[in-house]
Design brief:
This protein is about 15% helix and about 35% strand. By secondary structure, the protein is mostly beta strands. Helix 1 links the parallel strand 3 and strand 4. Helix 3 runs parallel beside helix 4. It is globular, with a radius of gyration of 16 Å. This is MBL fold metallo-hydrolase. It comes from Clostridium simiarum.
């Protein structure tokens, strides 16, 4: 399996069966560079309707669009959406958010979207053990570095990939990834936007992998 960080909270995941899933595409993304990574997008998931997580117009005619908290099956993918909130006030400030699990090739991935609260015990139990956890760490509209760290202590995951944090392209966010990194410490800087998963990854525990973004 190949995991490509396109930018912000957007990832392109390609299975060994060449099924592709694009998670949380954002308005303004460079479609040419995206299609250079992989020419077809089979599935697109969106965690909520904000412009930086639900840019689906280019994919509507050719991809399965997933934007509800329910189970889906597509080829070798099993996808499950779970309801959560975009804030710490039960959705009163920013509405709802969907957390997705993606299962394929004996790997279990979980993308937290723009979650704004530490997940409940019930949600954590539903998610189960993970191969990869994609977690926002940038604060402002989502988890900050401290809350993201507290969340990772509640979830058993082999690899953690931070996302949705302040960079030169996303200056509106409050924090970069540094506070999260200082808290969790167990960090590998991967000098690429792509991570290839192998079965040996299952021996890791809460290993943070910092990717470069494609965009």
């Amino acid at each position: 399996m190949r995991i490509n960080w396109i930018g912000h909270s957007c990832f392109l995941i390609i299975t060994s069966e060449n099924t592709s899933i694009l998670v949380d595409p954002f308005e303004g993304m460079d479609l040419d560079s995206l299609y250079e990574v992989y020419p077809t997008i089979d599935v697109v998931t969106t965690s909520h309707k904000h412009f930086d997580h639900s840019y689906i117009d280019p994919f509507k005619s050719s991809s399965l669009i997933i934007d509800e908290a329910k189970p889906y099956v597509f080829k070798d993918l099993k996808i499950q959406g779970y309801s959560s909130y975009h804030d710490d006030y039960g959705g009163l400030k920013r509405g709802e958010n969907i957390v997705y699990t993606i299962s394929t090739e004996n790997f279990n991935l979980c993308h937290f979207g723009d979650i704004g609260h530490i997940p409940s015990k019930e949600l954590i139990e539903k998610i189960g053990d993970l191969t990869v956890l994609f977690i926002p760490v940038g604060g402002n509209t989502t988890l900050d570095g401290n809350k993201a760290y507290s969340t990772t202590k509640l979830i058993k995951s082999n690899i953690i990939i931070p996302m949705h944090y302040k960079t030169k392209n996303y200056l509106f966010l409050t924090e970069d990834a540094s506070r999260f990194i200082v808290n969790i410490k167990n960090v590998i800087k991967h000098d690429s936007y792509e991570l290839i998963l192998h079965e040996s990854i299952n021996r890791m525990q809460n290993q943070v992998v910092l990717l470069n973004s494609l965009q």
